[in-house]
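During the reporting period the student researcher (J.K.) took over the structure-prediction task from the postdoctoral fellow and processed the backlog of single-chain submissions. One of the processed entries is reproduced below for the supervisory committee.
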Amino acid sequence: MAALLRQGARRIGGSVLQRTQAALTSPAVAEERRRLVPRRMYSTEEQASEELTRKIQQKKEELYDVVCKAEQSFWTSSFSNKRLLQHLSVQVKPRPEDFKWQRMRFTKRAINVVETAGLVALTYAIYSVVLALVRFVGDKKGDLMMQEMREARKAKASSDLIKIKN
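J.K. obtained the following structure tokens:
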């Protein structure tokens, strides 16, 4: 009897659970939820910040297009324009169909890797030099201390000999 009650409860509970999950994924329920949940009120500062961010992104896109067109001509091509294109290629929206964008983005990433590797190597070299200097200075101090100790021993030994003779 208890087993039948448990089985009946599972069937009812399972069907209720299935209905609840279906209701949660329903577009009508989602629309109602959107209407009921109050939207966040934006302050004028947040709106101004979003507007400025959008304008900056738009200007980056426009600047990338203009510099890319200028790079196609021999007379307007320059090293600084190529560097600018590399910087902008990382910041503009992805353009997988544009070969020049792909090349500039790859070049910028490669330069970043080389710069990071150079920074790590330079840091290691500086650390090695500093460590060698510390050891050298430490050895010189140690040599001076050893020399002073020898002189002190000689002085003590000579004073002990003088005391013994007297």
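The committee noted the following: Residues 24 and 30 are 7 Å apart (CA to CA).
J.K. will present the remaining backlog at the next meeting.
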